[in-house]
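User: Sequence recovery, please. Input:
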């Protein structure tokens, strides 16, 4: 999980407070020239499932765009949105829902 990646509520606009964490991913990718990653976006189960799917895809693409705009070759980064289909915690509490709203980077 890429902890600390924050977005404006209900949008794919990355909160500037997340830049430091994303810059560490850029640094890693710069040094590991053969590494490829998948950026996976996830949401909680609140709201419309199709909207959550689209939001998770948009957020994953926003992270990918950040990495590419900082010099990482786009062919090394894929973005996938999973919506609410892969929870890591129960969605019946705010704490659980917060854990499910996440971005993950998986090395391929």
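Assistant: Recovered sequence (108 residues):
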């Amino acid at each position: 999980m890429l902890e600390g990646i924050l977005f404006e509520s209900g949008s794919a606009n990355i909160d500037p407070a997340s830049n430091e964490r994303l810059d560490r991913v850029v640094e890693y990718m710069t040094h590991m020239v053969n590494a490829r990653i998948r950026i996976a976006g996830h949401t909680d189960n609140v709201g419309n499932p199709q909207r959550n799917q689209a939001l998770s895809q948009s957020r994953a693409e926003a992270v990918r765009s950040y990495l590419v705009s900082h010099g990482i070759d786009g062919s090394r980064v894929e973005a996938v949105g999973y919506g609410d289909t892969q929870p890591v915690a129960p969605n019946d509490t705010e704490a659980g829902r917060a854990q499910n709203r996440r971005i993950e980077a998986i090395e391929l």
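The chain has a mean pLDDT of 95.
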